[in-house]
Design a protein that fits this description.
Number of helices of chain B: 19
Strand content of chain A: 35-45%
Shape of chain A: elongated
Distance between the termini of chain A: 19 Å
Oligomer: heterodimer
Structural class of chain B: alpha+beta
Structural class of chain A: alpha/beta
Number of strands of chain A: 37
Number of strands of chain B: 22
Largest sheet of chain B: 6 strands, mixed
Strand content of chain B: 15-25%
Number of helices of chain A: 9
Strand order of the largest sheet of chain A: 16-15-14-17-18-24-23-22-20
Radius of gyration of chain A: 38 Å
Chain lengths: 595, 686
């Protein structure tokens, strides 16, 4: 077949083939390149100003990367970006994509914020809880801030601070005693300064717990001792204490009150939080052994109140190597940071007391001499009161003596652990926020042998106001008898969290509320954790004023491919090809003179 | 046909006429009653506009009603005659054709017709009266209704006017004050008349925020208001007496409290106003002996002791007197003789006096060993024994055989009371010896006498210590000197006895103004005491008088019967004001949402104010709190900002009154210290 005849033939065949294919209309899967998908999330929190700043960041990202990045396209994200006050709990525990964090910029001055504020320790009824707060001010030099502690918007107490420099941090303390036992939500608030734009960080929600627990105190005197007797009288006059006392009046004769054990043993002392020991030089070796166990294992506090030069077996418990006896002509006031006052003219000064915490001291011979000291011993504390004749001057300062001992005894007794202690952190949280529960059992509750330690089972339940109970799983921590668990704070409300082991049950209250505000310091710590998590996923943490690193990360993401179904015969090119083939075939035939 | 019974028909006629007469009389009585009630109401309303009192108004209104009633009946007595009854019957039965009227006339004038005619007429009239319904003749239903309505209207008028103050209740002064804006429409005038013995003028307060008075004052409170109020003193209702110028109450003030004025609206309490009442008691005079102000031990009775005293009172002193008791004898034979010595009194003002006297011992015939106990007593102007007071008591003793007579010793100042010790005696002696040569003889004697007095004080303590044993610790706490003695008892008695002997020798040396002789035994006494107690210092309280052991507080009995003692403990409750303050704070916090929005009823708010005031009515803190709660109550609900501010101020003011204590700060480094102490403990074990 000649070329002039073969070409029209092939053109005809090709056109027929195209026509047949067109009739069949086959579907073809084709891959196409798409921009990387990025999941962009705004983290709630803050006030209007913070919200505006967040929106500005989003706008900038859209403008700079909108054509190269598919934000929130619904496709499987290649990266995740969180904008706002991001905390570690906002980040997913496990993530397979790089997660980056953009923090909104710091508020413009003037600005005051609460950097740190912890919920106070629980206190007995009638005792003030202490609220410590660290407050930071920017651009406030010469101005004054008022800090108020409030409950349901009612001011309970307040204090003021005058700022001296443009960027300053200060630590304030406030005291408040709730009128009834229970848990209440209080707020520490710095009143906004004139012109302050960001106010969400001026408030911190805190948790105040007042307990109706009576502190169990044993006053033990091997012989009548006026020092211990007047301490006992001070404690007996206070409703915070349940005092048991025993005094060896003579050989075989005791004067006792309350549930005081006749002999000191580890078992008989377990019920007490604090033991005050008068005439300690008369203690026998077995007494001292029992006290040692009480302090080290039970975690109790033992206060030795001698009225003469220290001697006897109890010195083995004290880390001090020796005691100097000091006699002054006129009674001197002891210097102490705790409330109350105490005077003495005859003193026993502990020497070489490494690790001791000085509770009260005197100025003697131009140096500060410790008089009342505390040592840590195992889980408990040992205190030595070297004011040998302090009881004589108890009327010097409107019962400062009584207040001093009440405060010291209450402080020490409150530090003595119950059979089970547990904490909620934070005890006031936003729904969904991670709350850590830590329960620790006293060593007396553990079954300890030389080879192993057995811990009794611990149950934790969270009970809602409607009675619904939710079990919480705790995991053993590294330390024996300590368990930890984490839960997401439930919906807004008050929840009773109960920890039980055997016959012992303790409980606490978890408050969940939508408008809970934590201290900025907490937020900073959370932000630090968030940064660490971001780095571990391959993301970056940037400030809103410099988005270059995050733009670099996002633009370096590989483009994606997408498979799409196509019908080639439906395209105009296909139709045109068919037309060209038929036209060419017809033109060649015409040239040959055919029809 | 039977002939008519004329007798029966005549009886029917008479009976019918009499019945109608009774109904006519009742009708007039009803009318008279209606008019009388209306008249009484008018009189009552009219009298309410005058200054006539309520009781008199009632009496006058009732009197007016009676007069009108009687006058009406007298004036209309012709309306219930037989003629009127016959007319009424004729009006009710026109078909009778006046036969009843004719019968009634013939009854009055029988001569106007012949007997058979009369009988016919009476028979016909009798038949008519038999057939009539008397209720149709004289209808009483409507008049009765009118009368009842009149009475109801009158009662309503009286009730309405009773609610409004009458002209009698009104007072131009009250109107003026109320018009000027007396709080809650109440003018309170308090007149405080101090006790007569104070000779002070009464004080008049108008609408006081608080009332301050001396105990025993008479308080007269007059209330003027257009509304009825009642008064309480605390929870006790006071009976108000109506007077021309308002309602008044009088009381004698004994203790602090508060007055609560409350409006009465039916059975409920409306507005409440609280006025704190601070009553200050009249304190007894304070009397002090300035000289010699110490006990004296004198060699004989030749001395003359000058006594100087000062007395002060918060209002006015009335008398001052020096009284003494002479004690003679020895052993178990004592004789007491009391007397008084006139004072030479200087009165710069009536509140502060000074007095002087001379105790001439010779004139009192004091023998060796005898004592004179004296004090100055005084009185303020209160009647009775309430205003009596006495100074401290001092002794003058004439030295007995074997006693060392010194110039006496003085109670050291409080600060040194516990600082005396045998070592200090030694120290003072050594210092005195060092400068002895530079001192004049008189100065030396004076200083020696002072040290001797202190030595005597120390010695007397140790002598006292040798007896007695502690029995009741609580009681002992109030007697520290004896506590100290009890503590040292039973130990090293022999050494203490030796020390006492040495102290005696010190006194002898000092009596001879010989410090060289006194110093060695003083040191020996210290050594003996050190051996006795193993300590180098003793704190003793000097005794202004030689103590005697109180056997009632000493342990006595058989040793074999000694046994354990179990002391009973009682639960300690917070002080009442503190507990009340906590309760108030709890209530305020609990009610804060309603208080802020003004949804708490005013009565509940004033109850809170009263609760605050009742905690301690005489204390300014609680008075101010109560007033602030009152101000909060008066603040409009719409002004939420002010309400919130006031509530915060109130709560912030209550918080300190709950008087809480602060725990000591926990040391953040306790964990670190625990590690260090464990490490040190481990090292010491090695």
């Amino acid at each position: 077949m000649s070329t002039s005849r073969a070409l029209p033939f092939f053109l005809r065949i090709a056109a027929i083939a195209l026509a047949v294919i067109g009739v069949i209309d086959p579907r073809v899967q084709l891959a196409e390149r798409v921009p990387p998908a990025v999941d962009l999330q705004i983290v709630a929190g803050g006030d209007d100003a913070a919200g505006s700043a967040t929106m500005r960041v989003l706008t900038r990202l859209q403008r700079s990367l909108g054509d190269r990045i598919a934000f929130n396209s619904g496709a499987q994200p290649a990266a995740r970006v969180l904008v706002g006050d991001v905390s570690a709990s906002d980040l997913p525990a496990l993530t397979d994509v790089p997660t980056s964090v953009i923090a909104v910029e710091e508020a413009a001055p003037p600005n005051v914020r609460i950097v740190a504020a912890e919920s106070p320790r629980p206190v007995p009824l009638g005792w003030s809880a202490r609220f410590d707060a660290t407050i930071e001010a920017v651009g406030m030099a010469g101005r004054t801030s008022t800090v108020v502690l409030e409950q349901d918007g009612v001011t309970l107490t307040q204090t003021t601070h005058a700022w001296r420099s443009d960027r300053e941090r200060t630590r304030l303390e406030m005291f408040y005693a709730a009128p009834v036992p229970g848990v209440s939500r209080v707020a520490l608030r710095v009143q906004p300064a004139d012109g302050e734009s960001v106010t969400h960080d001026n408030r911190v929600d805190l948790w105040l717990k007042t307990i109706d627990r009576h502190l169990n105190v044993l006053v033990h005197e091997s012989r009548p001792s006026w020092g211990a007797a007047f301490v006992r009288r001070s404690l007996e006059a206070s409703p915070a204490f349940d005092v048991a006392a025993i005094t060896g009046a003579s050989r075989g004769l005791d004067v006792s009150a309350g549930a005081a054990p006749r002999r000191l043993t580890a078992g008989s002392l377990e019920a007490f939080d604090l033991v005050v020991l008068g005439a300690p030089e008369e203690l026998s070796r077995s007494d001292v052994d029992a006290l040692r166990s009480f302090v080290r294992v039970r975690g109790g506090a033992a206060i030795f109140v001698p009225d003469r030069r220290p001697s006897g077996s109890y010195l083995e418990m004290l880390p001090a190597s020796r005691f100097d006896e000091v006699l002054v002509a006129n009674p001197m006031p002891l210097r102490s940071t705790q409330p109350g006052s105490i005077h003495a003219s005859e003193l026993a000064i502990p020497r070489d007391a490494a690790g001791a915490r000085v509770i009260a001291s005197i100025d003697y011979k131009d140096s500060d001499q410790p008089v009342i000291v505390q040592w840590m011993a195992g889980a408990g504390r040992i205190l030595f009161a070297g004011a040998l004749d302090g009881w004589r001057f108890r009327s010097s300062d409107s019962d400062g003596y009584g207040r001093f001992w009440e405060t010291l005894a209450a402080t020490q007794a409150m530090l003595s652990p119950r059979p089970i202690e547990f904490t909620l952190h934070p005890a006031i949280a936003r729904p969904g926020e991670t709350v850590t529960i830590r329960a620790s059992m006293r060593r007396t509750e553990l079954d300890e042998t030389a080879m192993r330690t057995r811990t009794p089972p611990v149950e934790v339940r969270m009970i809602a106001a409607d009675g619904a109970s939710t079990p919480i799983r705790l995991w053993p921590a590294a330390e024996a008898g300590v368990f930890e668990g984490r839960i997401a704070a439930p919906a807004a409300g008050r929840y009773d969290v109960q920890v039980s082991s055997g016959q012992t049950t303790v409980d606490d209250v978890l408050i969940a509320a939508m408008d809970v505000q934590h201290a900025a310091g907490d937020m900073e710590r959370q932000a630090d954790a968030a940064r660490a998590v971001a780095a571990s996923t391959g993301g970056v943490a940037v400030a809103a004023n410099d988005l270059t690193p995050i733009e670099r990360v996002l633009t370096s993401l590989p483009h994606g491919e997408r498979m799409r179904a196509r019908h080639p015969v439906r395209s105009m090119l296909y139709v045109a090809s068919f037309a060209v083939l038929t036209c060419a075939e017809w033109a060649l035939r015409r040239r040959r003179g055919l029809r | 046909v039977q002939p008519p019974d004329h007798g029966l028909l005549r009886f029917a006629l008479d009976e019918g006429l009499a019945a109608v007469v009774r109904r006519l009389r009742a009708l007039e009585a009803l009318r008279a009653g209606s008019v009388a009630v209306v008249a009484a109401a008018f009189v009552w309303v009219a009298l309410r506009q005058t200054a006539v009192g309520r009781a008199a108004s009632v009496a006058l209104a009732l009197g007016a009603a009676a007069v009108v009633f009687l006058a009406w009946l007298v004036a209309h007595r012709e309306r219930w005659t037989r003629t009127q009854a016959a007319l009424a019957i004729e009006r009710a039965t026109p078909s009778s054709r006046n036969v009843v009227l004719t019968a009634e006339e013939l009854d009055r004038h029988p001569d106007r017709a012949r007997p058979f005619v009369r009988d016919r007429v009476f028979a016909a009239a009798g038949r008519v009266t038999q057939s009539i319904n008397r209720r149709d003749v004289v209808a009483l239903g409507r008049p009765t209704a009118v009368t009842v309505l009149s009475v109801l209207a009158a009662v309503a008028i009286v009730a309405i006017t009773m609610q409004r103050p009458s002209a009698h209740d009104k007072n131009p002064a009250v109107d003026a004050v109320l018009a000027a804006g007396a709080p809650r429409g109440l003018l309170v005038t308090a007149t405080i008349t101090p006790p007569a013995y104070l000779q002070e003028r009464p004080q008049v307060l108008e609408n006081p925020n608080r009332i301050d008075a001396i105990a025993g004052s008479r308080l007269r409170v007059v209330l003027r208001s257009r509304e009825p109020w009642r008064v309480r003193l605390g929870r006790e209702d006071l009976a108000l007496r109506r007077e021309t110028d308002g309602s008044a109450v009088e009381l004698v003030l004994g203790e602090s409290g508060y007055l609560a004025f409350e409006t009465i609206r039916g059975t409920e309490t409306g507005e409440r106003r609280l006025v704190p009442l601070a009553v200050t008691p009249d304190r007894a005079p304070t009397i002090k002996i300035d000289a010699p102000a110490k006990d004296l031990l004198l060699p004989d009775d030749k001395a003359v002791v000058g006594v100087a005293a000062t007395a002060t009172d918060d209002f006015a002193l009335e008398s001052l007197d020096l009284r003494y008791t002479k004690v003679s004898g020895s052993g178990e034979q004592f004789e007491f003789k009391e007397g008084s010595i006139p004072l030479e009194i200087t009165r710069p003002d009536e509140r502060s006096w000074t007095a002087r006297a001379r105790l001439v011992l010779g004139a009192m015939q004091l023998a060796p060993g005898d004592s004179l106990i004296y004090r100055v007593v005084g009185k303020d102007r209160r009647p009775g024994h309430a205003g009596f007071a006495s100074s401290d008591t001092y002794f003058v003793e004439i030295a007995g055989p074997g006693q060392v007579a010194l110039e006496g010793f003085e109670l050291p100042p409080d600060r040194e009371r516990y600082a005396l010790s045998q070592q200090m005696i030694v120290l003072k002696l050594e210092r005195l010896r060092a400068r002895e040569r530079s001192l004049a003889r008189t100065a030396l004697e004076e200083e020696v006498a002072t040290i001797a007095a202190e030595q005597r004080a120390v010695r007397s303590n140790f002598i006292f210590l040798t007896g007695g044993t502690v029995e009741d610790e609580e009681e002992e706490a109030a007697h520290e000197h004896e506590i100290q003695e009890g503590r040292l008892e039973n130990t090293a008695r022999r050494e203490i006895a030796a020390a006492i002997q040495h102290m005696g020798r010190v006194e002898q040396g000092l009596a001879a103004v010989n410090t060289a002789a006194a110093l060695p035994p003083a040191k020996a006494a210290v050594d003996a005491l050190q051996r006795a107690f193993g300590r180098n210092r003793y704190f003793l309280r000097t005794l202004p008088s030689r103590s005697r052991v109180d056997p009632a507080r000493r342990l006595t009995g058989e040793l074999a019967k000694a046994s354990d003692w179990r002391r009973e403990l009682f639960p300690v409750q917070p002080e009442e004001p503190v507990a009340a303050a906590r309760t108030l704070l709890e209530r305020l916090l609990e009610l804060s949402p309603q208080i802020r929005t003004g949804r708490l009823p005013a009565a509940a708010m004033t109850a809170l104010a009263e609760q605050a005031l009742s905690i301690a009515p005489s204390m300014g803190d609680w008075q101010r709190l109560s007033q602030r709660l009152g101000a909060l109550n008066d603040t409009p609900a719409a002004d939420s900002a002010t309400r919130e501010r006031l509530l915060s101020e109130i709560v912030a003011a209550v918080v300190p009154l709950t008087r809480s204590q602060q725990l000591g700060s926990a040391d953040a480094t306790d964990a670190e210290r625990s590690l260090r102490s464990t490490w040190q403990e481990g090292r010491s074990r090695k």
